[in-house]
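Field reference: sequence -> structure
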Amino acid sequence: MASVVPVLRRALLYVPGSSQKMIEKSRGLVVDNVTYDLEDSVTMNRKDEARSYLASFLNGPRARGIGDQAVRINSVSSGLAEKDLLAVLDAKHIDTIVVPKVDSPSDLYLVRDILSHKLPHRHPPTSQQSSASSSDSRASDTHSKPIQILALIESARSLASLPQICSASPYLSGLIFAAEDFAVDLSITRTPSLSEFAFARSSIVTYARANNLPSVIDLVCTSFRGDGGLRTLEEECLGGMRMGFNGKQCIHPSQVEVVQKAFGPGDEEVEWAMRVLVGDEKAIGQGRGAWTLDGKMIDAPVVGKARSVVAKAEACGWDIGKLRDKWKGQEPE
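Structure field:
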């Protein structure tokens, strides 16, 4: 099976595809992902208009502050997905397709087949090629880098089909939890604790990790007004991160800064990680397989975590060279 190149998606911000004003305004955003919506936010009588807006926008100059430009199509079961895909796939600057209501692997097969036919040059690399391509993926041209899929998990059937969904397409890059639709499907009520979603959220993270899917995007926070709303948002972010999610859906630009800060590495964590890497390099030179830092043992799993933290920090804009120079004197204890 092909292997997708990891993409930073701390915040996934929805923008209605039928609002030309909001689409153009998104050019000024600094955000990991913007998902331009053709599904729920667009009424049936404006679908064609929205497709035209997005095709034109994605063929124009690329928005510099947006890392991943995505389009959420209508569900395969709606009968509108193929028309959506044919309208936007020729655009120069489309990175990701978000597929809603993925209840079974068959909901990804149509998308997979159209991508293979329309964009054969943007097929994901094989596992042997992925390590080589990941190093220069951020600098590669949009029109040649692999296109990716994110699947929305919205129902009990979807949750039960996770093992099959996660292996259904080489384009699949991650899972998104649609809590509101999931609650409707199971006739449950969302509460501030989110405890009613614990099993679903844990299952989504577990199956994504088991299948090496790099993005696991948590539920929408419906609070965003005022200080209280932002506090709720931050609490939800931290709770999702503790469960293993590495990003969160946003419904308003005011949520982006809080979300991206919460899902990015903190100052102390990055400093610790660099100290570990520098110290470990010296420990290896001394023939030591394990050593201590601040009285705590450092071994291979800890070093692996430190590498992941530094890699994510670099993707988030940290000056890793400067940080390494700061801690060049770190010695293994």
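Note: The first helix runs from residue 20 to 25.
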